[in-house]
Amino acid sequence: MSIRKRGDRYQAQVKAHQEVVASRTFDTLAAAKTWHDAEVLKYKDSSYSIQLGKARTADVIQQWLTVRQNHVAESTFTIDKQVIGMLPDKLTAKPIRSVTTADLQQQFNTWIAARKPATVTRYADCIKAFFRWSVARGFVAKNPMDRVDIPKHHNEPRPLRPLNETEILAAAEQVGGLYGDTIAILGFSGMRWGEARALRVGDVLFDDRFPRFHVIRSQPEGSSEKLPKSWRGRMVPINPQIEARVKALMGGKDQDSYLLSTDGQAQLWRSPFVRATHWGELAGGRAIHDLRHSAAVNWLKRGVPAHTVQAWLGHSDLEMTTRYTSYLGMDLDQAAFHRLGNVPVIGG
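Above: the chain's sequence. Below: its structure in token form.
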């Protein structure tokens, strides 16, 4: 393509963007120009723009939030909006190119002194994401958060307190009804609470292969329906111990009805479940999520390979699953050792 044709094409694109700007509504003229300049920059062979860098940080934040809302989960966006809104006015009123590492370090020092490390880490993730986007769109030349000193925070996993299969079934029998079925299904399937409350009758498969749940959606309370945490679906076997309960729950419901529901329409809610079951007392202080841990540990005890347990739980990597093998410790080691003497050697 000739230089002239490339120039004509670029001018046409600029004109098109100007027409789009004219059809949009902005709070200020500066905000409109900021958006327009960022759009035009897409078609330039450059990154940082001095002109874009003059934009007020608050205006760039609004543009980022508009884009962000369509690219992350609803809960993530809500938290990001809250965090970015806590930046002081004296900082957000500055041109974005004038925001320095020292400015941000000063703010984070205030947060570090008053908040838990995990909270400060979450704040840092949000602010870093905003400036990464700002770099990519040409507002700043480099991310000022890269050199901000944030204390390292490592989430310490809660000690595992799994229930064995007998304990799960005993708790389910004691509670009875829908909530008893819920305890049994969570304890034998390893599903997360949000996945279980979004499970449809049509996601239960009884065919020539093996009975299984097709876990393809999740709906945490207060959020819209989405993919599971692993961002992909998975198959989870229906143990013989819960097969009759599952079939009873399916009775009289259509394919789109919720499985864990008396009428197929009302979903599970954590607070009523906890109150009705006296969960804290019933489970000895365990969390509902410990039923997921219980399923994993009990599968491993039955000899299910760790890679299969990983797939059934929907873990993104095997390292997450090895937490359960570490918990079992010598139980698995001893079982493996006995196999050395009991399993014939192929070709021996």
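Confidence is low (pLDDT under 50) at residues 42-46.
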